[in-house]
Amino acid sequence: MEALETTVSQLPAQVKGSSFFNLTTVIALCVFFALLCACIIIGHLLHGNRWANESITALLLGLGSGGVVLLVSKGESSKLLNFSENLFFLYLLPPIIFNAGFQVKKKQFFKNISMILLFGVFGTVISFCIISLGVFLVFNRIGVTSLTVQDYLAVGAIFSATDSVCTLQVLNQDETPFLYSIVFGEGVVNDATSIVLYNAVQSIDLKNISGLTALKLLGTFLYLFFTSTALGIVAGLLSAFIIKTLYFGRHSTDREVALMMLMAYLSYMLAELMDLSGILTVFFSGIVMSHYTWHNVTESSRITTKHAFATISFISETFIFLYVGMDALDIDKWKSSGASAGTSIAVSSTLFALVLVGRAAFVFPISSIRNCFKKRDGTKIEFRQQFIIWWAGVMRGAVTIALSYSEFASSSDTSSQDSLMITSTIIVVLFSTVVFGSITKPLIEALLLRHSRPMISDASDLPSLEDLRFLFIENGDQSEQGSSQRKRSLRLLMTNPGISVHYLWRKFDDRFMRPVFGGRGFVPFVPGSPTGEAEESQENS
Amino acid sequence: MEALETTVSQLPAQVKGSSFFNLTTVIALCVFFALLCACIIIGHLLHGNRWANESITALLLGLGSGGVVLLVSKGESSKLLNFSENLFFLYLLPPIIFNAGFQVKKKQFFKNISMILLFGVFGTVISFCIISLGVFLVFNRIGVTSLTVQDYLAVGAIFSATDSVCTLQVLNQDETPFLYSIVFGEGVVNDATSIVLYNAVQSIDLKNISGLTALKLLGTFLYLFFTSTALGIVAGLLSAFIIKTLYFGRHSTDREVALMMLMAYLSYMLAELMDLSGILTVFFSGIVMSHYTWHNVTESSRITTKHAFATISFISETFIFLYVGMDALDIDKWKSSGASAGTSIAVSSTLFALVLVGRAAFVFPISSIRNCFKKRDGTKIEFRQQFIIWWAGVMRGAVTIALSYSEFASSSDTSSQDSLMITSTIIVVLFSTVVFGSITKPLIEALLLRHSRPMISDASDLPSLEDLRFLFIENGDQSEQGSSQRKRSLRLLMTNPGISVHYLWRKFDDRFMRPVFGGRGFVPFVPGSPTGEAEESQENS
After folding, report:
1. A129-138, A490-499, B52-61, B318-327: which has the highest mean pLDDT?
2. Rounded Cα gap, residues B98 and B268, in angstroms
3. How far apart (Å, rounded) are the C-alpha atoms in residues B254 and A308?
4. Hey, are the CB atoms on B278 and A19 less than 8 Å from each other?
5. Which of A242, A273, A314 is closest, CB to CB, to B27?
6. By the CB < 8 Å criterion, does B479 face chain A?
7. Rounded-to-integer distance, Cα A182 and Cα A390, Å
8. Are A82 and A330 spatial neighbours (Cβ–Cβ below 8 Å)?
9. Minimal C-alpha gap between B275 and chain A (Å)
10. Better-scored residue on pLDDT, B493 or A290
11. Are the beta carbons of B264 and B281 closer than 8 angstroms?
């Protein structure tokens, strides 16, 4: 919102209502909030519809109202609807990602952590290389000549950033938990990778590229990944500790909820202050808060946080799509790009084709390699699933737009080809969100849900986990027959490393973490809470 | 927050972190959010303390950290901490007032509506006249000569604006419901009156004052009051109707909560757009939403809205006090006022004395007049209660500061005496909030709560309401003995007009409003909700 005001504050001071603030700001806020209400109502009415969702509704409503504003003001109002990177990165993105971490199915996420890291890190690098190379090879032929090598690399980084927000809306965590955790988890890690790549491209010295540069990049990425994660975990644990220690026995819902909100946001800001990936930080702080802090607060605080975070995230998402839709019709950019419709379409379709190819180039190979290592048939990723992973990650969103602005609009000498890059980015984002976003739901239904054979899912390997836990407990109780049992559990540990890591973590958690930071079963009162019980019963089934 | 950014955006573009936004913004946000967390924790630790509360903690923490920032930056950083009227009026105030309307005890509020209106309208006008006159008479003698007649009148309007935010914190709705409803209700109505007065002073033609001017002002006030209220009621009813009609049977907590939030905020913005009192609008939209909309949503939505609105309001309040505290040490203002400590103290104490006198001049007379009309001993306002009403409304807050900035800082030629007025306003606000705020709680304890005799309260006249309702119901059932009953109920209506109005409203509500807009008992599922049940039992007792 401050974007609107910053722009508006440059208007003459005479345009003032009697109520101490700018009339234009108030009008813009009114329009935005009325449109948000309309999005929610229309989105609800379209609930049964397979093709539409809130993102697409918001995008189209934004486009429509942008057009109306343009008509009413006769092409003058584009300044009012400037896309602001600050607004996006400071206020809209953090609640979305925090909520995603807060509501994510932790077990599913950590079970697939190796796949998520492979997709998120190596996949993004592969995609970056292919897009950069493709742009370098194709753009000269279709008449875009003014870009430097640095710009080509930046385009690669910009279009490697997937849109985790839209993924959240088209994939359903309950219906397709495996795909959701893979695609969404990849999106979060992908963010860190994209930022590292983008910053690296900005600072890289193109004249002195050697093997050392790649090593340096890897080092930077590892530093970024681990410190960001650690900061998020520390923030989450701190909030759990404070609430457990201070509020013990005399809870106040408002203070608890406020403290959780503020500490999550503070962790994001601190990460940005330290040039880390705030998104990773706030994601992990959300995970830790839902694991510890959430169990230390009162029943009403639990319900409130669960729904309030989801609501704020929902409003932010809708706001972003509305914003992108309205911004797309910014007439100045289209004018200053000065490109013919042909060139625009050529550039946009080249970029989109490269996005498709770049994503295919890592989803299918990495999945196949993983399948080679899995013996059991049920744990393999089928081709249909690979196809959906590829498809659902093609959407580009606000991150891409924000990065594109940062690269092509912030420089003082914005050339016509820079504007062309921005308008092409907008076309790619709109096309991928509207077309791919609306087809994804029916596609998943057609490919997966109507299919009767059980897929790779959490149901297939839970029994062995239960088996394992049973063994370990037995082991502790009756030590006389322990040696054969220990052998068996050791064998299980060798064959199912992921599951045993999870088991060991549970043991560590129960013995050391929960007594200090609280968590399920470690606070005096444990009235049944909707999600807690559901998760519990799921884990014990 | 956009205030920080607007200021920061004027800094050279080189000061940029790698993460696409200004380092200074991020630092400011970090400091603010860390301080907010500290306020909540310290406020909780001081919970048992009678003298301190969150407002005072925040104010002192803000002062302290403002001092630290000033020391660290060697007196350079004052620009970072500019008080922004936009931030205050657009983002911080609406949630506070909306929440107050949402959580207010409606019965208590409407029972005392005549007193609230008397205090809020006539009281504010009396206070405005006394302060303007006093300033006019005293200021010339203590060396402040450059103010115009318009400025004197503006000062009267500025210092007649009480601080409803601080009142919410020092008075307890459960312990002293009568006082709370009077003082807080007055604060809300007072806001509308102050804005009318302030705007009238801005636009008044001092050369042509006649009896017509006063009449015009009255007309403006009545228009403002009724249209603002109507807009709030319409917004509330609309939200109730939409949720009842659209979401019937298939509720979604996130969408319901989002819709309530957005529609409340939209009503505030629309009121500001139409130059009405947004505060009155959002207050009444809160009342209507808690009466209708709140009963149409799911149980989780009820808990979520109740606590989420309270939390957001709590964060905003703390933020305001922190902000005022930090802003108080803005070194530029103190320098440019150029006044000696003596003049500063003289101006501030004159203003504060006038505030005290101006408030006394209407609280005691109006209360006495009201007492003359009340026959029964239990319904009279005792002197001790009058004293607390006077005392609790003396605090001036962020509204006063915002109006003072608007009057004395926005003009292009800020003279040293304009700066003096601003610094004096800050002194008055700090002094009244810290000293009066901290003494109020112990004072109420000493004067009222330890006293055993029952005071004027809702308990004293509820039996007669119950009696009346019983009569009306009897009346409807058995029409043969109706005439004598009707006479008796008519007599009751004459002696207790307030109660019968409430009864008639209940009847109208049950027959016409609730079937359309929902509400308690008019939605298919009515699981017990904490406040709803408490209110119900209270009303039937």
Report:
1. A129-138
2. 9
3. 7
4. yes
5. A273
6. no
7. 11
8. yes
9. 6
10. A290
11. no
Q: Is A21 within 8 Å of B250 when comparing Cβ atoms? A: no
Nearest chain B Cα distance for residue A273, angstroms: 6
CA end-to-end distance (rounded Å), chain A: 47
d(CA A281, CA A101): 10
Residue B511 has pLDDT above 90, yes or no: no
Distance in angstroms (rounded) separating the CA atoms of residues A264 and B200 = 45
Q: How confident is the model at residue B530 (pLDDT cuts 50, 70, 90)?
A: very low
- Kindly report, residue by residue over B264-274, the tens digit of the pLDDT: 999 999 998 88
- Backbone φ/ψ region at A527: left (φ over 0), alpha (ψ -120 to 50), beta: beta
In a 13 Å sphere around the CA of B259, the CA atoms on its Cβ side amount to: 31
**pLDDT value for A238:** 93
- Determine contact, residues B345/B99, Cβ cutoff 8 Å: no
Interface confidence: ipTM more than 0.90: no
Q: Report the pLDDT value the prediction gives residue A26, as an integer from 0 to 100.
A: 82
CA-closest candidate to residue A56, choices A183, A170, A152: A170
Q: Reduced to 3 states, what is the DSSP secondary structure of residue A135? A: helix
d(CA B409, CA B425): 12
Question: Could you tell me where the DSSP H helices lie in A49-176?
Answer: 54-72, 85-86, 93-103, 106-111, 113-117, 124-139, 149-159, 164-170
Our CA-based measurement puts residue A510 at a distance from the nearest CA of chain B, in whole angstroms, of 27
Average pLDDT for A328-350: 77
Q: Which residue in chain B is spatially nearest to A310 when comparing CA positions?
A: B254
* Tens digits of residue pLDDT in A428-449: 988 888 888 788 778 877 877 6
**What are the pLDDT digits (tens) for B172-185?**
777 778 888 888 88
Cα B266 from Cα B279, distance rounded (Å): 12
For residues A194 and B216, give the distance between their C-alpha atoms in angstroms, rounded to a whole number: 63
